[in-house]
């Protein structure tokens, strides 16, 4: 027995959990989309459409994504909403009006989602601003932040056979706990929405905060879980124990390289999927064809993950040379801001791809569901 066992056991006690053997944890039942290579539309396809909104998920479906990837926050009054950032940033959203005259929380832009109610979030326009790093984004002025239930309802309209897959992240801040709700708030409230959804068997639950991976697996062993990791969550500047890895230290695993240790740590907490950043935060250049490129996902990591029975699905992959490198290493999926481009390339490589849903039907459902948000 080596050190991580005691650390995870302590964590489990803290959140009133205990670890079962990973072999006893069944995966979610398969749907037909599992037979396709997993091209994931990151935030719905951030390169093409304003992120994490009904329009972005609509275009993800039209573009033939296998999986819709998205993020969840929890509001002050306990609603599960779909948004990436822990706060409402002025780069993405603009205020319109207060919920009631004299609301002391107004303006809402610049505040944490955990400190705002759903009614307050409903007033914010998060569809008008095109992001500078994504100059081809479609904007949808007036688009509101949706609840997770509303996203499920919209996609059910367009995908009436309920075949598309989901990768849903908890945006909990392990380093700054006062900025978001806590572990069990996220796990229990998200799971309640999963449980009532026709998509429950198609959901992967992902998080950088590995405490939530342990907690979700204990709450419901049928949910597939994905361990997110990057340089900034794997390594602390002062070499202290990362708050993101559930008390684990990578050096306590046998390795022999840190890349293999990462796969071993993800397997240890019972993850079904390892989802590492494709490139290192510290790479001085952006492309494998350029001298000095530093990846975070490596061949050793992929091979060790596969040896341990993990699927490996890197993010956020927006360069074709990185796509080629990862496909050569036999990754199981690719998360991209440009799912349409990655899908086309994956298909060119001879891998099976999910069908594109009928554009007319998807856009009709989008119009109907956006209208409900304007009421």
UniProtKB/TrEMBL annotation:
GP-PDE domain segment(s): 37-346
GO biological process terms, semicolon-separated: lipid metabolic process
Matches recorded under Pfam families: GDPD
Keywords: Signal
Entry superkingdom: Eukaryota
KW Signal (keyword) present: yes
Cited InterPro entries: GP_PDE_dom, PLC-like_Pdiesterase_TIM-brl
Signal peptide (residue range): 1-20
Gene3D superfamilies assigned: Phosphatidylinositol (PI) phosphodiesterase (3.20.20.190)
Gene Ontology molecular function terms on file: phosphoric diester hydrolase activity
Keyword Signal appears in the UniProt entry: yes
Protein name, per record: GP-PDE domain-containing protein
């Amino acid at each position: 027995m080596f050190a991580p066992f005691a650390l995870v056991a302590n964590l489990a006690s803290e959140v009133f959990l205990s670890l079962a053997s990973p072999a006893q944890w069944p995966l979610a039942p398969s749907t037909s989309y599992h037979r396709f290579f997993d091209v994931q539309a990151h935030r719905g396809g951030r390169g093409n459409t304003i992120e994490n909104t009904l329009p972005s998920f609509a275009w993800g479906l039209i573009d033939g994504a296998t999986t819709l990837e998205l993020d969840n926050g929890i509001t002050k009054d306990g609603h599960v909403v779909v948004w990436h950032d822990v706060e409402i940033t002025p780069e993405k959203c603009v205020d319109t009006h207060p919920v009631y005259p004299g609301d002391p929380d107004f303006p809402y832009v610049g505040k944490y989602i955990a400190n705002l109610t759903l009614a307050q979030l409903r007033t914010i326009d998060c569809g008008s601003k095109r992001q500078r790093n994504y100059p081809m984004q479609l904007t949808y002025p007036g688009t509101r932040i949706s609840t997770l239930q509303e996203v499920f309802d919209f996609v059910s309209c367009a995908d009436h056979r309920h075949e598309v897959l989901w990768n849903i992240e908890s945006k909990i801040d392990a380093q700054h706990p006062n900025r978001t709700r806590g572990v069990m708030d996220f796990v229990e409230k998200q799971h309640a929405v999963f449980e009532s959804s026709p998509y429950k068997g198609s959901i992967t639950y992902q998080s950088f905060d590995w405490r939530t991976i342990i907690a979700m697996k204990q709450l419901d062993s049928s949910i597939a879980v994905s361990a997110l990791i990057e340089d900034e969550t794997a390594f602390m500047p002062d070499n202290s124990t990362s708050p993101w890895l559930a008390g684990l230290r990578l050096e306590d695993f046998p390795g022999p390289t840190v890349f293999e240790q990462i796969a071993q740590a993800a397997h240890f907490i019972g993850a079904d999927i390892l989802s590492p950043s494709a490139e290192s935060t510290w790479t001085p250049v952006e492309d494998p064809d350029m001298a000095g490129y530093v990846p975070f996902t490596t061949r050793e990591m992929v091979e060790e993950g596969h040896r341990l029975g993990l699927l490996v699905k890197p993010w956020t992959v927006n360069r074709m040379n990185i796509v080629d490198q990862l496909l050569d290493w036999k990754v199981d999926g690719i998360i991209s801001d440009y799912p349409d481009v990655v899908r086309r390339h994956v298909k060119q490589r001879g891998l099976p791809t999910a069908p594109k849903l009928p554009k007319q039907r998807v856009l009709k459902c989008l119009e109907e569901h956006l209208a409900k948000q304007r009421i």
